Amino acid sequence: MRVRIDDRLCQGHGRCYDIAPGLFGEDDEGYGKVLGDGEVTPELEQAARLAVANCPERAVEIVREV
User: Fold this and answer.
1) In terms of Cα–Cα distance, which of 64, 58, 1, 51 is closest to 22?
2) Which residues does residue 60 pair with via DSSP β-bridges, in sequence order?
3) What angle do CA 6, 8, 14 make, to 5 degrees?
4) CA 33 from chain center: how many Å?
5) Global confidence as pTM
6) Residue 56 CA to chain centroid, in angstroms?
7) Residues of the chain scoring pLDDT < 50
8) Are strands 24-26 and 2-5 parallel, antiparallel or unpaired?
9) Cβ atoms of residues 9 and 57 within 8 Å
């Protein structure tokens, strides 16, 4: 499982990197960005789900690989 941010939807509220700093950071303009390859380890899964649920624009999503 991986996380990603839709740059077209992100408005820079910062909830993703406040909730899950191990998965998200901020760019130079304060918009969220995925750290590394976005792989969600088991210990970060709950934080990833909280970040998805708390994004006002629904820009954060979990992608399941098939």
Assistant:
1) 51
2) 5
3) 65
4) 7
5) 0.91
6) 12
7) none
8) unpaired
9) yes
**Which amino acid, 32?**
G
How many C-beta atoms lie closer than 10 Å to residue 7's C-beta? Answer: 11
> ∠ at Cα 61 (57, 42), nearest 5°?
135
Q: Please give the pLDDT value at position 65.
A: 77
How far is the C-alpha of 3 from the C-alpha of 63, rounded, in Å? 6
The ranges assigned to domains in the chain are: 2-63
CATH architecture, domain 2-63: 2-Layer Sandwich (3.30)
Token pair listed for 20 = 């899950």
Segment 34-50, tens digit of pLDDT: 999 999 999 999 999 99
**Per the structure block, which two tokens stand in for 48?**
């990833």
> Do the beta carbons of residue 52 and residue 44 sit within 8 Å?
no
